Here is the input.
Amino acid sequence: MYKGSCLCGKIHYQVNAELSDFGYCHCVSCQKASGSSYGANAGLSRDSFSLTDHESHLREFESSAGKFRAFCSNCGSPLYAYLSKSPDVIRIRLGSLDTPFDKRCQAHTFVSENASWESIDNDADVPQFDEWATRDVLVQSGSRQT
Here is the structure.
């Protein structure tokens, strides 16, 4: 259904399921992991995800207690993340997709940590939350959302 890869092309993956709804996370951790003002991630079952080649370049980093981020050891591209308490659900980094993804952002989360140089005012029709989005607006599968 979806294909993706890292920047250098040493890691390719395939997703055989629909990706969850997503939001833009403006927390400092997502800023650091993405190198931008927010992270854009969609959840799916790990069973629906497969690496199609070059698995030896995949590395993981525990960025905070129980949260692991997977990336290419050659180019550094972030590919997905997961929690040790729910390793069967991963969160794909949407920027790593090679095939079209037509869903739209459902919420801006952690806007209390928004980068000072980033304005999200142009996205006024999308709800904003100081921390996690309420579950009636966005369910972030595989995250620490309560």
Q: What stands out?
A: Residues 4 and 96 are 5 Å apart (CA to CA). The radius of gyration is 15 Å. The chain has one domain: 2-123.
